[in-house]
Write a structure and sequence with these properties.
Elements lengths: L14 H20 L3 H34 L6 H32 L1 H25 L2 H33 L5 H29 L3 H4 L1 H15 L14 H20 L14 H21 L15 H35 L7 H8 L1 H21 L2 H19 L7 H28 L6 H45 L4 H7 L4 H9 L5 H4 L2 H6 L2 H7 L4 H33 L14
Helix pairs in contact: 2-3, 2-5, 2-6, 2-8, 3-4, 3-5, 3-9, 3-16, 4-5, 4-8, 5-6, 5-16, 6-12, 6-13, 6-15, 9-10, 11-12, 11-15, 11-16, 11-18, 11-22, 13-14, 13-15, 14-15, 14-22, 16-17, 16-22
């Protein structure tokens, strides 16, 4: 092991000099044992893992029209809406619940070891998903895909929980922002890339969306096993906190399941928030999390040290991460409905082509993130996280407010500029915030801290869809039925039939928009539809009629969603600004 020169700084020495000296000594020790390029090996492999897992989290959202068509499932049957939700959210639910437990196990048994296991599980799940998509159809096919996506989520949880912790171990503190910047591009940018890949691949063959991860997974699994080394010091004699892990898992699972089923109709209500099962799930979940907190503050070897939240940089960094994730996830979901269900059909694009075209149209969001993500990570190493993460959330919130004033049938150039700016804001925020979180905790707690950070990232998508979807339905409730009724009457549909069809639940209308599906053909009585003049019948079941009717009601709800996202972004900016000066655990404070 290389021994650095002993040095004691005088009181007047600059704190930055001390930090860089210690970082240099730490890196020289690593290089002597694993080679000069090991940190880049760790970065490239963990970035590949984060990219693969993130792509998988969102690739289905934009591909759902092709998947449901390929499986032969009617999306408007209530039981099938449940299948849609599980396909959409099951992956994030499972990976969000297990990552803290995995983070703790990683601190006990080795981060690299569990990361390798995760790569293997994820790859096996990907292979089985592709095979299932080829041979099983109908409801059984959807159930098979859901179960195998949950298996994938377990592997993804291992990757999410450990990738940033492995990077933090491999890089000195004065280079972590740059390294984590690239990793965050893979983690968050991969979510955007998943939307694009899903749109492109499903336009050729929807089975390919399950195949795309297989070669990446095989290469990554073998490479991780051969190239990665354990740098963390594993303390012997630690015990697994069974009560804490069980209470946390049950509590968070109950809350996330309740949020998921709250989106489904219940009784005569358009959504399920009044369902006793949903209410009971939320209450029981919160109580279990209180049990978790009670246990964790008293056991010798806790699942997660809640005292880490006493560290201001850690607590406020995770709060801003959660709020930013909710705003980002909701925006992506709403943009897909907007493009696939309204804007593209209104511009003459066939429903079968909307996923591909939507994927191309959201590229500016990805470009903004890709350009400014690495830049902010590099600069945060020099100047700290506070400036860039705060500025990023301010820009993000401003972008949301501007987007709220864009009409439903917009001019694309303006739309592209706005989502590019939003991507810039998200890019400025991501890497500095994550670096600050990981720098603030002791080295032996990095696995658990990374797991908690990953939990906030993963559950933010479920929270965002639950919150924003509900707000969108509230906005639709006011104007959707009158708009449908007037539109149907104008096409010579009898008043009694128009009144019946106009009771279409807003939830069904939104899912129809998400799936690029005109429900009029299946909702209107076939006899009445056949009796219409040919021109009216063709228009009603064509690509223009339904998007035209829902565009204004949708935009009313969308405005509420975007205002809420802006508020969350600004609160995240405040939390980020209050994180304090740059802080690396074990080093002196600097700016």
């Amino acid at each position: 092991m290389v021994q650095g020169p002993k040095r004691k700084l005088a009181p007047k020495d600059d704190n930055k000099a001390q930090a860089y000296y210690e970082a240099d000594l730490e890196e020289r020790k690593r290089e002597s044992k694993y080679g000069k390029n090991y940190k880049w090996i760790a970065l490239s492999n963990t970035t590949l893992g984060a990219l693969m897992s993130a792509i998988n989290g969102t690739i289905l959202i934009i591909s759902l029209p092709a998947v449901f068509t390929g499986l032969g499932i009617n999306p408007l049957i209530p039981s099938n809406i449940a299948l849609l939700l599980w396909l959409l959210l099951g992956y994030m639910l499972v990976s969000g619940v297990i990552v803290v437990t995995i983070g703790r196990l990683s601190d006990m048994f080795g981060r690299v070891k569990l990361y390798n296991i995760g790569f293997a599980i994820f790859t096996a799940g990907s292979i089985c998903l592709y095979i299932s998509s080829l041979y099983i159809t109908g409801v059984n096919g959807a159930l098979s895909l859901i179960i195998l996506r949950l298996v994938q989520a377990v592997g993804g949880g291992f990757l999410f929980a450990n990738s940033v912790a492995i990077l933090t171990d491999a890089f000195p503190s004065n280079e972590r922002g740059k390294a984590i910047g690239f990793n965050q591009i893979a983690g968050i940018g991969g979510g955007i890339l998943g939307l694009i890949l899903g749109g492109i691949l499903s336009s050729f063959d929807w089975h390919l969306i399950f195949l795309v991860n297989v070669p990446i997974g095989i290469i990554g699994t073998v490479w991780a096993y051969l190239a990665l080394h354990e740098l963390a010091t594993i303390k012997k004699g630690q015990k697994f906190d069974v009560v804490g892990n069980v209470s946390f898992t049950i509590g968070l699972t109950l809350i996330l399941l309740a949020l998921t089923y709250g989106l489904l109709p219940y009784g005569g209500n358009t959504m399920g928030w009044k369902s006793p099962y949903v209410i009971a799930g939320i209450v029981a979940g919160v109580l279990m999390l209180f049990v978790f907190a009670f246990v964790e503050l008293r056991v010798k070897f806790p699942m997660f040290k809640l005292t880490l939240f006493k560290i201001r940089a850690f607590a406020l960094g995770n709060l801003s991460l959660l709020l930013a994730g909710i705003a980002r996830g909701g925006l992506q979901f709403m943009i897909i409905i907007w493009l696939q269900g309204i804007w593209l059909p209104l511009h003459g694009v066939e429903f079968s082509q909307t996923p591909f075209r939507a994927a191309i149209l959201i590229l500016p969001l990805l470009f903004g993130f890709l350009i400014f993500g690495p830049i902010s990570g590099y600069l945060s190493d020099k100047y700290g996280a506070r400036l860039f993460s705060t500025l990023g959330m301010v820009i993000n919130g401003a972008g949301f407010l501007i987007l709220a004033f864009v009409p439903a049938n917009f001019t694309y150039l303006y739309f592209a500029i706005i989502i590019f700016v939003i991507g810039v804001g998200q890019g400025l925020f991501a890497a500095p915030n994550t670096t600050a979180i990981m720098n603030s905790v002791p080295p032996e707690e990095r696995g658990g801290a990374s797991g908690m950070r990953a939990t906030f990232t993963n559950i933010s998508l479920i929270f965002s869809i639950a919150i924003f979807f509900t707000l969108l339905v509230v906005g639709l409730n006011v104007h959707l039925a009158p708009a449908l009724y007037k539109g149907l009457i104008a096409q010579q549909i009898p008043k009694t039939e128009a009144l019946r069809v106009s009771t279409l639940p807003p939830t069904s209308a939104l899912f129809a928009g998400l799936l690029g599906y005109n429900p009029m053909k299946s909702l209107i009585n076939p006899t009445i539809l056949a009796s219409l003049p040919a021109a009216n019948r063709s228009y009603v079941i064509g690509k223009i009629f339904f998007p035209t009717l829902i565009s204004l009601p949708f935009h009313d709800g969308l405005a509420i969603v975007l205002y809420t996202g802006a508020i969350m972004s600004f609160i995240a900016a405040i939390a980020s600004a209050l994180r304090g000066k740059r802080f690396v655990y074990g080093e002196a404070r600097s700016n």
